[in-house]
Amino acid sequence: xxxxxxxxxxxxVEEVFHEGGPVAVKPFKQGACLAxxxxxxxxxxxxxxxxLMKDLEPLGVEMAKRLIAAMGVAPKAIEAYGKGAIVxxxxxxxxxxxxxxxxxxxxxxxxxxxxxxxxxxxxxxxAGARLDVPLSHINAAYVRSHFGxxxxxxxxxxxxxxxxxxxxxxxGARVHDRAGGLKxxxxxxxxxxx
Amino acid sequence: MSAKIRKIIVxxxxxxxxxxxxxxxxTRKATAIAVIExxxxxxxxxxxxxxxxxxxxxxxxxxxxxVEALGIPGGKAESYGKAAIVGENGELEHAAAILHPQMxxxxxxxxxxxxxLIPSAKKRGGPGTPIDVPLGHKDAAFxxxxxxxxxxxxxxxxxxxxxxxxxxxxxxxxxxPRVGGLQxxxxxxxxxxx
Lengths: 194, 194
What we know:
The complex is a heterodimer. By secondary structure, chain A is an alpha+beta fold.
């Protein structure tokens, strides 16, 4: 039986038209999917926590699918991604680290194989805690125009025995990108960095 | 005058369980937020009709976004609410002009009915200020299972010269309601109250 018990899913999608400069021809979109699950290891020190990691894989895929559906774009329109976790206070930060493999797996599965590392943040926090989840390019981590972050959280989660797992995606460059650096058009796409 | 929109944020929250008890079908709340320029920031203006027109425009736009995010026909919506946060260079009356005189009609057009008052909240605040959007049944304000609220916030809004305008629409009441009162199957839907 799966260790996953979902209390709540949430999606949030932001569509940015401008930030004081020219209105974008194609609005920038970024979104997040959050899943609030019961922490099966809350309230004790459990040496073997890896069974949850395996069980999180289908959740990662489902969250990636929900997020893309909420963003209303094709998977190939996604150019940046990120992930995060907020562990309720009866858990430990190590429980949040279980998301590294299945969160990335879920997005790669849905986006069709990506090369760059998925940037991440995690913390232990109470209900209403906010997390800034980083975003960077899916195939070349150094693409400067795609570095971003999205602040997310839910007023009623995580309760002490819960974990909030998060995936983020965006459709491209910041709305008034002009800080230079490696451009998406210059990606070699071999090593996940450039 | 039409709204100068900087960004639109759409969120959906889906509750699948409470206290380990499944919520079937899950309850779902959608919110749609527009961050707009406040044309009267920093000045006292007597005539606020242009903001009333903006309220009418956003009423239709944001309600459509909510219904789309829920994936339901407008007539299937069950409860609604609205709210605004005025940035620090504006006044509360600007929120009132957007929310009250003209916003309701296009909201009700999208939802096909809406005999009940649309419950509302407003405040002045800075970026990241949360606001609890009240929710009530759209055809009968006294339906007890549908009294609720949904918190919204946008990390970077409202800036001083902006207004954040939110509409919330649900396809359900609270998860596992059991405090009695008027039930939704008992609605007459004539006076907006019962």
